[in-house]
Design a protein that fits this description.
Structural class: alpha/beta
Radius of gyration: 20 Å
Number of domains: 2
Distance between the termini: 51 Å
Number of helices: 4
Number of strands: 27
CATH superfamily of the largest domain: Hexapeptide repeat proteins
Oligomer: single chain
Strand order of the largest sheet: 3-6-9-12-15-18-21-24-26-27
CATH architecture of the largest domain: 3 Solenoid
Shape: elongated
Mean pLDDT: 97
CATH topology of the largest domain: UDP N-Acetylglucosamine Acyltransferase, domain 1
Length: 256
C-alpha cells in the first residue's frame, strides 16, 4: 500500500490500510486513518491528523506552516475528518497560537482543485468548494455550504449552513444560513431554495425562511429591528431559530 518511492518519516503513524503513491513526502507527527488514499506527489506535514476513507489527489500540500508573519514555529495542528475528497494542488495550513491553534475540516467535504484553506479555518461537513475558492485565516464555514469557483472569503468571516456563493464572489462580511450571494462585493440574492428542496427541507420551512429574509433584507429594518421581529417566527420554526441564533452572533456585519 506504500509505494517504494514515497518518503515516510518514521514518526508518522499510518494505518495498515492507507495507500500512498510515489514521490509523496509525509513528515513526522502525521496520523492517517484506515482507507485513506493518497495519490502521487502529495506533501503532508505535521502535526496533522487525517481520518478514515479520505482521498487526496496529486500535488496537494497538506498541513504546511501558516502563512502568517507572526508564526514563529509553534507546534500548531491540522485536523481532517473522514470521507473527504481533496483534489489536485489544494493547500491547507495548520493553525496559529493567535487562535485555537488548530485548523479543522469535518467529514464528507468535496474540495476541488487549487482551493486554499488558510490557518485557523473551521470547516464543517458536507461542504463543496469549487475550483480556486480561497479562504483567508480564521474563517468559519458551516455544514452544507457551497462555494462557487474563485470565491474569496476575508479573514474572520463566517458563512452559515446551507448557503451558496456564486462564482467570483468576494465576501468581506458574514453570510447568513440558507442564503445565496454573489458579486464583488457579494450581495444577497434570495434563499438557496433549490438547495434546501434537494436536502429535504419542507415547503413550510422554506416559506417561513422567505418571511425571515424579507424582514432582514426587504423591510428597511436595521439588524436590531430584524432580530426583534424574527422572534415570533423563530418560536414556530427551527430553521428561523437557527437563522436568528446566527444573526445574534454576528460581529462583522452581514452581507447586505
Amino acid at each position: 500500500m506504500i509505494h517504494p518511492q514515497a518518503i515516510i518519516d518514521p514518526k508518522a503513524r499510518l494505518d495498515d490500510k492507507v495507500s500512498v503513491g510515489p514521490f509523496c513526502v509525509i513528515g513526522p507527527n502525521v496520523e492517517i486513518g484506515e482507507g485513506t488514499v493518497i495519490d502521487s506527489h502529495v506533501v503532508i506535514n505535521g502535526p496533522t491528523r487525517i481520518g478514515r476513507n479520505n482521498r487526496i489527489y496529486s500535488f496537494a500540500a497538506i498541513g504546511g506552516d501558516p502563512q502568517d508573519k507572526k508564526y514563529a514555529g509553534e507546534a500548531t495542528a491540522l485536523e481532517i475528518g473522514d470521507g473527504n475528497t481533496i483534489r489536485e494542488y489544494c493547500t491547507i495550513s495548520r493553525g496559529t497560537t493567535q487562535d485555537a491553534g488548530v485548523t479543522r475540516i469535518g467529514d464528507d467535504n468535496w474540495i476541488m482543485a487549487t482551493v486554499h484553506i488558510a490557518h485557523d479555518c473551521q470547516i464543517g461537513s458536507h461542504t463543496i468548494f469549487a475550483n480556486s475558492a480561497t479562504l483567508a485565516g480564521h474563517v468559519t464555514i458551516e455544514d452544507y455550504v457551497i462555494l462557487g469557483g474563485f470565491t474569496l472569503v476575508h479573514q474572520f468571516c463566517k458563512i452559515g449552513a446551507h448557503s451558496f456563493t456564486a462564482m467570483n464572489s468576494v465576501i468581506s462580511k458574514d453570510v447568513l444560513p440558507f442564503l445565496m450571494v454573489s458579486g464583488h462585493m457579494a450581495k444577497p440574492h434570495g434563499l438557496n431554495s433549490e438547495g434546501l428542496k434537494r436536502r429535504g427541507f419542507s415547503s413550510q420551512a422554506i416559506n417561513e425562511l422567505r418571511k425571515a429574509y424579507k424582514l432582514i433584507y426587504r423591510s428597511g429594518n436595521t439588524l436590531e429591528q430584524a432580530t426583534a421581529q424574527l422572534q415570533p417566527l423563530a418560536r414556530g420554526c427551527a430553521e428561523v431559530a437557527q437563522l436568528l441564533d446566527f444573526l445574534k452572533g454576528v460581529s462583522r456585519g452581514i452581507v447586505r
